[in-house]
Design brief:
The structure holds two protein chains of two kinds. Chain A is built from nine helices and eleven strands. By secondary structure, chain A is of the alpha/beta class. In chain A, strand 2 and strand 3 form a beta hairpin. The two termini of chain A are 31 Å apart. Chain B has two domains: 17-323, Bira Bifunctional Protein, Domain 2 (BirA Bifunctional Protein, domain 2, 2-Layer Sandwich); 336-388, Rossmann fold (3-Layer(aba) Sandwich), CATH 3.40.50.800. Chain B contains 13 helices and 15 strands. Chain B has a nine-stranded mixed β-sheet, sandwiched between helices. Chain B has a three-stranded antiparallel β-sheet with strand order 2-4-3, with no helix packed on it. Chain B has a three-stranded parallel β-sheet with strand order 14-13-15, with helices on both faces. In chain B, strand 10 (276-282) and strand 11 (290-294) form a beta hairpin. Classes of the chains: A alpha/beta, B alpha/beta. The interface between A and B is medium-sized, with 23 and 23 residues.
């Protein structure tokens, strides 16, 4: 049988995941010295690790070409559709927040508010819950700029320490939701390779909870 | 300018040669299981009134449907599912027939999926519906037809069983509104333990809350019944559990082993399921290939209440899997090409028929000269060219 294939989000999440895998006893040297390779063996060919951008991790898992994935909750909320979310890995923690210029009363007045964000779906869902119509503008780079130059009344973005907000005269109005890394699984894989996946899930659970 | 003259819309494709042969092969195998089981084919229209699919229980959201309007301005949809049209048809045209009826269908359904996700917007589905009867025997018949169908097309598969009432009975014991219930259902369906825990932490702890908490992890073999009974004892979910166990035990003589599994977290998006539900998975396909179950309340929505159960198979997914198998080839190349000298054409065509009757794949050459026929045969790797006249 083919080894289980796990898609990891490149960058910080990848590093922490590799540390976790080593902690539960898998040799990850190939991943650490990957060079330009994109598919790498882990342990004694126990799994294959695939490195991908966050949103692509979801795509690969959803289509079943990867059995498992490690991806941030932010990406799941923005792009998620149908897969199993097995485990909160409790790292890569941060939060989505609504922020505005300091001292602005965001909810006052009748005018429709404009929100700049990299996460239009998260923003849409947040304001839908409040039954509030907002104009959403998708921004690719530093979202903090939008309220400063007058494009938007507020932003919805990931906040870790809040120092970028502070440095630009913005403040948090409301927390939207907590974010952390999650272990996800393809629906068919979990049924067809239950034992292997559950075993790995249990081991990861033991070192993250 | 006809900008889109030479491409097909997103999510659709042309099927060529081997693809069609593979599809015919897969569909043929399933069809013979259906026909042997006494199911009769029906075809429903490709377009239907929107009303048929706008029932709250349909589980198909309006943005997923292709919509158009007729010449009176009424809203139509391109068939996104076959069960609802069959329910419509049975409740009107077969209302007074002798029940139960066994129907099967083989037709494409259409979904308007988000772009650039690689999903198919048009796909062939085959399925059966057994209408006008409730109870264990009907459920066993449907489930065994599903097992036979999937066995006919794949060897490495899993069928998982669940029951709609397990979750319904447990959530009814809680003081929650429909929106909250739906959130719970979604988090169980996606086995999203952390979201489920967050939701349940908002409720007063009780037996039902802790039972719901463990639903997504309750999947596996027969041992699940023991675990589930402990967790659900004293709740209304017990009768559904016992029923599921009865079905499971009934299948013991078929020796399916770990091919038949229990998943109490199997809560289908289609809200019309009321009893046992199941899904089938085939190694190599990343999504459920079969989905089905019992939907006793659906026909009531169409004014003809009766028991009903059925399932659908995504045959396109199986076709694609078959085509990716290097050991399978669907060559339909002729073995003999028959060329006729001028004036001997009909003679040659008769020879082709004669060869065909002997089981030799022969074809009449429509090219004007022997030379062209020979070079065509060479490029198509047709072994023999015969000349008549």
């Amino acid at each position: 049988m083919k080894p289980l294939r796990i898609a990891l989000t490149k960058g910080r999440l990848e590093k922490t995941t590799v540390e976790l895998l080593e902690k539960i006893g898998y040799n990850c040297d190939a991943v650490k010295n990957k060079g330009r390779k994109l598919i790498l063996p882990v342990g004694d060919n126990d799994f294959e690790v695939v490195l991908a951008k966050a949103a692509d991790v979801i795509t690969y898992v959803e289509h079943g070409v990867c059995d498992l994935g490690v991806v941030g909750k932010d990406t799941i909320l923005e792009n998620g559709t149908s897969f199993y979310e097995l485990l909160d890995l409790n790292f890569g923690k941060c939060r989505f927040a609504l922020a505005t210029k300091k001292g602005v009363d965001f909810y006052s007045g009748y005018n429709t508010k404009t929100i700049a964000t990299k996460y239009p779906n998260v923003t849409r869902a947040f304001f839908d819950d409040k039954n509030m119509d907002v104009r959403i503008i998708k921004i690719e780079g530093s979202v903090e700029l939008a309220p400063l130059v007058g494009l938007a009344d507020g932003i919805v973005d990931i906040v870790e320490t809040g120092s970028t907000l502070k440095a630009n005269g913005l403040e948090i109005k409301e927390w939207v939701t907590d974010i952390s890394a999650r272990l996800i699984a393809n629906t068919a894989s979990l049924k067809l390779r239950k034992k292997e996946i559950e075993e790995l899930q249990k081991k990861l659970e033991a070192v993250t909870q | 300018m006809n900008k889109y003259l030479k491409i097909t819309p997103e999510g659709t494709k042309d099927f060529l040669f081997a693809e069609c042969s593979a599809m015919d092969d897969i569909c043929g195998k399933i069809e013979s299981v259906f026909k042997t089981g006494g199911f009769k084919r029906v075809i429903t229209p490709g377009i239907e009134f929107y009303d048929v699919f706008s029932l709250p229980c349909s589980g198909i959201s309006q943005e997923d449907m292709f919509k158009l309007s007729d010449n009176k301005g009424r809203l139509l949809v391109v068939r996104p599912d076959s069960t609802l049209p069959i329910a419509r048809m049975v409740s009107s045209r077969l209302k007074n027939s002798v029940l139960p009826v066994r129907l099967y269908y083989k037709q494409a359904v259409y979904r308007n999926n988000p772009t650039l996700t690689g999903r198919r917007n048009e796909f062939m589905q085959m399925g059966v519906e057994l209408l006008g009867v409730k109870g264990l025997r009907a459920d066993l018949e449907i489930l065994s037809t599903a097992v036979k169908s999937v066995s006919a097309i794949a060897s490495d598969f899993r069928i998982e069983l669940g029951h709609a009432e397990v979750f319904d009975a447990l959530s009814d014991e809680l003081d929650i509104d429909d929106a909250f219930k739906e959130k719970l259902r979604v988090s169980i369906e996606s086995k999203n333990y952390s979201a489920l825990n967050n939701l349940l932490d908002k409720l007063e702890p009780c037996r039902a809350v802790s039972a719901i908490r463990s639903l997504p992890s309750l999947f596996g073999g027969e041992e699940i019944f023991g675990k589930a009974a402990e967790i659900c004892r004293g709740t209304k979910a017990m009768s559904a559990l016992d029923y599921l166990h009865t079905i499971y035990n009934n299948f013991a003589p078929l020796n399916l082993g770990d091919k038949l599994i229990i998943d109490l977290g199997l809560v289908q998006r289609n809200d019309y399921y009321t009893g046992f539900v199941f899904a089938g998975y085939i190694n190599g396909i990343g999504d459920a290939v079969i989905t089905g179950g019992r939907y006793d309340d659906l026909l009531g929505e169409f004014g003809a209440p009766m028991g009903a159960a059925g399932f659908a198979i995504d045959t396109d997914a199986v076709t694609m899997l078959r085509l990716s198998d290097e050991n399978v080839s669907y060559s339909d190349n002729p073995e003999v090409l028959v060329f006729a000298e001028d004036g001997h054409e009909i003679e040659a065509i008769s020879l082709v028929s004669k060869l065909n009757a002997q089981g030799i794949k022969a074809q009449f050459s429509v090219l004007p000269t022997l030379e062209e026929t020979k070079s065509f045969a060479a490029s198509r790797k047709i072994a023999e060219v015969r000349t008549v006249g």
